[in-house]
Input
Amino acid sequence: MDEKVPRSKIIETEIPMGTVHPAALEPYRVRFFVEDEIVQEAEITIGVNHRGIERIMEGLPVEKANSLTEKICGICSNSHIWNSCRTAEIGLGIEIPERAMYIRVIMGELERLHSHFLYLAHGCEVLSHETFSMRVFYLREIVMELLAMIGGNRVQYGCSVLGGVRPRCDLDEAKLLRLKEDMDKVEEGLTDFANRFTSDSIVMSRISGIGVLPQKQAIKLAVTGPTLRATGVARDLRTTMFEYDDFDYNVVTQPDGDVKSNLLMRALESFESIKIIRQAIANIPEGKVINRDWEMFDTDIIESYIEVPRGTLYHSYALESGRVRHSIIRTPSMSNIGAMQYACIGDQLTDAQLCIVQCDPCFTCSDRAIEVIRR
Amino acid sequence: MGIKSFSRARAIHVMLVYTGGCNGCDIEIVNSILSPRFDAEQYNVYLTWNPREADVLVVTGPVTYHNRKPLEAIYEAIPNPKLVVAAGSCALMGGVYKNCSADIPSEEIEGPVENIIPVNAKIPGCAVRPQDVLAGVVSLLPILLDAD
Amino acid sequence: MFENTVIYSILAVIITVLVCFVISTLLPGIERKYIHARIQQRIGPIVISPGIMAPIKFMFKENVEVSSPVSGLYKSLPIICFIVVLCILVALTPQAYQIPALSSLVAIVGFLKVEEICYVLMGALSKSVMSVNMPFPDLIKGATHLNANRSFIEDISARRSLRMITYGSFPLYLALFAPITAAGSIFLSDIVAYQQANGPFLFTLSGAIAAIVFFIGYMIILNEYPFSIIKAKSDVIEGPYMEYASKYRAVVYLTRGFFMFVLGAIFSVLFIGVPPTILSWGILINVAVALIFVFMMGIFSAFSPVFTNRQLLPTILGATLLGILAIVLGLL
Output
């Protein structure tokens, strides 16, 4: 299938949902134009959540700005601070110690695990399958406790700082051992869950063939991350990142681009994350975790792209006497909004929220660059 | 203890309204009710999405400009007695978003929540921990039980 | 003498209804705590919480002005639902068999239909704050269909309830009529008498199939997962019940538990031949049947997602065919 064609052009009625709705925990407005409960067109309006982070960042000292980027999103907070530090490190030419790089990768992958588990749990909740949702939340709790152990907080850990990671996030033997043991637990639990999930014929009949995003359309809409990989395109920015050079992992793809592919994609990718964390635990080099031996100078605009749980994250700013200038952040959900609107077309209204959720929306991330005009 | 307080202590419906912020508090609160590990239902706290059913309104996030009116509308839809819990540092004082830099206030943020609706309990934390959410909701019980 | 009998009968019916009502308030709690919470490996609420304490709590809440075009009718609908359920239970008691118009299957089907029509009206009259009424600054921006009619989510729910009336509850009615083929009468007294003479209808082939169909119909008419399309959380949130607050919501809560019990009682009358009455130990069988149904429903609903129209139609079609098979087998 190249392109979905709506069954007819008659719009019977419009169903607005949001800004507060159980299926979409975040505030955004979605308007479904339906005919006989079949969605003919969906329109997502964001901007409700606009807080103006980039403007607050403007003129802040770069260290402060880095920790501010963490507050963009409570799900992929580590990715933001990582990429923000990475931007400055590229611009200032700071050498990062090997050990710090490994710890960053471990945090990044743990965060991918928790984000993917959240996705699975939320997906099951929107399916109204409370039991599966609870089981995934139970698994996720193990990961959350690991994150709290390393970073000291359950959500915003502030792991990366300029030149490495915070000394508090250094991993000693006991922590590494616990990480290793818990990875076994997570893998066991996830395997169990994935087996049950895929063998549940009711759930499978409910999610296969729903919310299809054809590959051609996905490329046209510039979709990124697991949503793109679920349509069969093996594009993962981790393959180009120098942090991941030492690790051996596969880029998982799924063929169909429907909800089933997306959910399985996340589950399979979690196994790859566990693999990466295990390699990192086994090979973590000795040494210091932070390099304080660097100098601040003015730079041109610096850009950095990394792969975060939801896709490609872009940070860019220039430095001027130690302060951030012209900050731009583009989050993966921003480029996936087109996919969310497209995936709903032709499905039942009950499935429409599921089709939006399958693209892993995070509108908190996205709501920054919209201008608020006041009357 | 009369039948009124007795019944109120055994069925508390919580509604969650999320008004901006970073999503962290929001997920922790849903987590505290949906996850079997914290399981708020063992304290007879239920998560609902219908303002007509709710007793306690949990608000997270600094109220952004576009979120002010929905928040007010939902608050008005809840029948009395109703209580409001502000969860997370954004809801308590606007968080990192309230001031652009130094003391210049941000245009987009209307919050903290106190400026818009009366708040009965405040749960600090960035992001709030699930244990604290449960403690916060339970700490409201005396007020809820004595209300008429 | 005659007057005494009438008074005793009425007293027996009232006590029966009261006992059944008290037991029925426990059923939602039992489903929530002992089935759902156990399957989900958590502790869960106390048993009295969802069925008894929540309605009492709602009784003491402020009675707000509902946002509905005909608020008087809207508010009276849950009470009508409750009375309908009460009437069904009264019709099932052996004392009511003296009134043939009440104690026939046609009357019960009629009452069930009233219940279903109430959902349609509830959905159509509820205008909640959660969809169109939600204040949003920007209606025009990017709208591709400027003149599209804007609907509340409850309108969708009302339309779905209408659909459920036309085909959704068909399996239940087929299952209700299956015992007639054996007993040869639509009057409950004849059906009970036939079963007391010839053994429960449940243990015949036709009865066993009809019982399965009845169970599917039971879940459909109670709007429990997976058939909860008219109040699916993923789009219509609570559907027809969106606007009920305070006392009216309390009645909604009570009706649900009571309806679970009464449907169980219908099953025990039609398939086992034990009418609910306080005067015999048979009422224990009624309670047991109601509990078994709640247990089974809890297990099913904990392991299934909500069905959309796509899955609903084949499921109902299959159940309907099974129901027809049961009736044909009964006729043979």
Remarks:
- The interface with chain C takes residues 3-4, 6-8, 10-11, 13, 36, 39, 41-42, 44, 46, 49-53, 55, 66, 69-70, 72-74, 77, 79-81 of chain B (CB under 8 Å).
- The mean pLDDT of chain B is 86.
- The first strand of chain B starts at residue 12 and ends at 18.
- The longest helix of chain B spans residues 24-34.
